[in-house]
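hey
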């Protein structure tokens, strides 16, 4: 929905008559020598992203938004302070997790779902998330590999150390190494994770890998 603004335009009688005969849907009136033209002005609708910069899933959304040219209003969500457990946040996302996208009232959680939505909704083409069923299936497979294997094993190993102060678990570390070996297999003989060009699978995987590297 656009808001309306009134533009004051000095205009002569000939142009006024032309407007009167026009089929254009412009609302106007003419007191004295000025024509008051009401034109719809469409303001950019807010796209709020509730996020933390240290979160790998949040960073994958930021990369995707940048790639498709979408501006996001970043809402820092401090999990330590319990921002994700406040009533307003729980009403928006009962899972109380981040990232969460609020695109002018359309609310979506889960980073991989958000990334695919941003491409489908705003990208100029489908190169980042192909519409071809086989190409898209390959991208999806890499996304599922990350959420179920690579990123999950990163979380299993590091979060207990960072947040719970536990000693490193060699068995969990071995499982994480195995996940990286699988990723290496996917990348053999190719530059990108899923096919011949950059896709949202690359954004997803690179944030998981970079998080493990700095942890």
């Amino acid at each position: 929905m656009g808001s309306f603004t009134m533009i004051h335009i000095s205009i002569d009688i000939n142009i006024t008559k032309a407007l009167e005969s026009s089929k254009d849907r412009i609302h106007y009136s003419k007191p004295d020598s000025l024509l008051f033209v009401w034109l719809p002005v469409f303001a950019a609708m807010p796209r709020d992203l509730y996020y933390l910069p240290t979160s790998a899933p949040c960073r994958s959304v930021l990369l995707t938004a940048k790639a498709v040219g979408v501006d996001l209003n970043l809402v820092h969500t401090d999990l330590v302070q319990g921002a994700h457990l406040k009533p307003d946040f729980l009403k928006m996302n009962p899972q109380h997790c981040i990232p969460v996208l609020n695109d002018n009232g359309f609310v979506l959680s889960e980073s991989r779902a958000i990334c695919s939505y941003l491409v489908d909704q705003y990208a100029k083409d489908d190169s980042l998330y192909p519409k071809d069923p086989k190409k898209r299936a390959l991208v999806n497979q890499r996304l599922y590999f990350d959420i179920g294997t690579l990123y999950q094993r990163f979380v299993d190993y590091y979060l207990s150390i960072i947040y719970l102060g536990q000693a490193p678990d060699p068995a969990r570390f071995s499982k994480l190494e195995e996940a990286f070996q699988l990723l290496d297999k996917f990348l053999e003989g190719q530059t990108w994770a899923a096919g011949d060009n950059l896709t949202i699978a690359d954004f997803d995987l690179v944030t998981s890998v970079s998080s493990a590297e700095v942890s």
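Confidence is low (pLDDT under 50) at residues 1-43. The two ends are 45 Å apart (CA to CA).
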